[in-house]
Task: inverse folding
């Protein structure tokens, strides 16, 4: 793959050692990288942490031209729709958390259920869940929000022209890019899964590793969006979506597209230790869960004291906290435009203290003990910091790799399969194994519950940490563990991001998942003695965290070693 135009000495050294040297030397190199980065950090220093190199190059170029963090985020998001098609998208949706000129804001451009959707649309005559219909084909798609969301972000905060921000994506779609091995492998696996069910292979069947992949239909679509983003919802692109819906048994109508609006919401804000955590409000469950987990961690300090990082007892304690967060998620959360979500009550100190008091330090809690107790795969994330200290944490998604597998005919982009994130029936797990109730039931125009957790940590009024991750139901537990790695164990940012992660959720009350890497035998044996079943996560590594940290010694940026991302720190004029 061609290297981006500018590469920091930190990235070059980290990349080389990651592939050639022993782990111990790799960590030493990371420490040197951070010194290189912090040595140049000053006013006018910017940073990007991206899941893919072309997006990093585009974001850096925009920042160097005087664009702000939102400009860079918009440009990167459109590039990812070209070069990261398994998750980057214009046919999906997501959330953007930002701090711009001291103003914290949250933009919800999550997909919505079509007006023709109904509560039991994925149940057969016997009431059984037809999961394939919620994952593959036109019936799986919600009304996309990405284009409307990015246009709304530009209208409010953009400084460079919309046309300038679309330029890198159009160029990459028209001229093509060299396909990395992992993308080719994912596309090959997806092609087999979608074979005979969607038109995926007609667009992506010719994608080959180390060959140039051009997307002329997508280039034309992006040029139409460049000229008028509303074309996606009311113009030629909208017509292409509707024809594709007709051919794939989808439900999205002209009225659904024309009426779609992104929504500005108030981000969740909570003090934790000596910082303020800004994160995603509903319809994401991730922000509430993250804030609960951080509070429960400190309320359980007596149990955590002296526990080594990723020791069996430490992992068990994380699982105890996560059980309680997932129980509340299933019972109380949904689209706030449709149901009353008790945010204040779920984050209330006395409620969390009661939850923490039930944590069992030496044995597993049963599901009945952690039940909600209030009184009467594929996603992508990136982080941006501009030279003025403005920050963006953006997570957006198609849901699973390549979404529904349906490519909009003549337009060249994939549609999401986000309808699986609704509760098809109370207590029925979705593809990520999580359950919900009537609050997250399908309803026309409703936004499906999400686990996306874009997060910005403030020290005083300034961004100190910008991070997030993909990973379905493992998103907020990944973000939680990275924060603890930094705050409790004093790790450098890259080491905190790369450390092995573990995940536990209901209804799998005895299962602990870990990254698809070997874990120490002693850890495995210790968890088994506590009664757990321990397995690699079934859909891949736990997350792909992209993070930026601003400290007294400078700025660090880290792209998760699990993916093909790039992190850079650089000085802008």
Result:
């Amino acid at each position: 793959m061609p290297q981006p135009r500018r590469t920091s000495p930190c990235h070059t050294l980290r990349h080389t050692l990651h592939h050639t040297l022993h782990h111990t030397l790799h960590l030493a190199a990371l420490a040197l990288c951070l010194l290189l980065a912090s040595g140049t950090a000053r006013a006018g220093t910017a940073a990007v942490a991206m899941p893919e190199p072309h997006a990093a190059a585009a974001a850096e170029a925009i920042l160097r031209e005087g664009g702000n963090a939102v400009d860079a985020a918009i440009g990167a998001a459109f590039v990812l729709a070209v070069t990261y098609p398994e998750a980057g998208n214009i046919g999906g949706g997501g959330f953007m958390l930002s701090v711009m000129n001291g103003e914290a804001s949250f933009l919800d451009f999550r997909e919505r259920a079509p007006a023709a959707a109904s509560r039991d649309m994925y149940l057969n005559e016997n009431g059984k869940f037809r999961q394939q219909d919620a994952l593959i084909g036109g019936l799986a798609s919600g009304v996309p929000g990405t284009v409307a969301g990015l246009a709304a972000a530009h209208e409010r905060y953009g400084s460079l022209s919309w046309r300038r921000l679309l330029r890198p994506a159009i160029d990459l779609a028209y001229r093509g890019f060299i396909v990395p091995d992992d993308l080719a492998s994912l596309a090959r696996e997806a092609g087999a899964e979608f074979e005979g069910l969607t038109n995926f292979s007609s667009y992506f069947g010719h994608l080959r590793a180390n060959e140039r992949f051009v997307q002329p239909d997508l280039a034309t679509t992006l040029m139409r969006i460049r000229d008028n983003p509303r074309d996606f919802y009311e113009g030629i692109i909208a017509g292409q979506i509707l024809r594709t819906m007709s051919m794939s048994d989808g439900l999205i109508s002209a009225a659904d597209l024309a009426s779609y609006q992104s929504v500005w919401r108030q981000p969740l804000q909570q003090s934790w230790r000596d910082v303020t955590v800004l994160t995603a409000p509903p319809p994401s469950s991730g922000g509430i869960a993250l804030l609960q987990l951080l509070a429960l961690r400190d309320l359980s300090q007596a149990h955590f004291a002296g526990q080594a990082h990723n020791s069996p007892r430490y992992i068990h304690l994380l699982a105890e906290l996560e059980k309680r967060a997932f129980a509340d998620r299933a019972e109380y959360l949904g689209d706030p435009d449709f149901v009353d979500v008790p945010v204040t009550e779920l984050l209330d100190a006395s409620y969390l203290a009661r939850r923490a008091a039930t944590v069992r330090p030496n044995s597993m809690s049963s599901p009945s003990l952690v039940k909600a107790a209030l009184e009467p795969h594929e996603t992508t994330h990136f982080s941006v910091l501009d030279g003025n200290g403005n920050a963006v944490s953006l997570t957006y998604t198609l849901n699973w790799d390549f979404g529904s597998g349906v490519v909009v005919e003549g337009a060249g982009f994939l549609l999401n399969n986000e309808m699986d994130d609704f509760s098809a029936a109370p207590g029925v797990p979705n593809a990520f194994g999580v359950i919900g109730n009537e609050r997250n039931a399908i309803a026309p125009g409703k936004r499906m519950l999400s686990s996306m957790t874009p997060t910005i940590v403030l020290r005083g009024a300034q961004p100190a940490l910008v991070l997030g991750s993909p990973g379905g139901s493992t998103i907020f537990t990944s973000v939680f563990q990275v924060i603890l790695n930094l705050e409790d164990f004093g790790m450098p940012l890259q080491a905190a991001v790369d450390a092995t992660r573990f995940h536990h959720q209901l209804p799998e009350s005895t299962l602990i998942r870990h990254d698809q890497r070997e874990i120490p035998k002693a850890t495995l044996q210790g968890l088994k003695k506590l009664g757990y079943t321990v397995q690699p996560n079934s859909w891949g590594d736990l997350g792909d965290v992209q993070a930026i940290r601003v400290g007294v010694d400078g700025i660090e940026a880290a792209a998760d070693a699990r993916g093909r991302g790039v992190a850079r720190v650089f000085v802008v004029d």
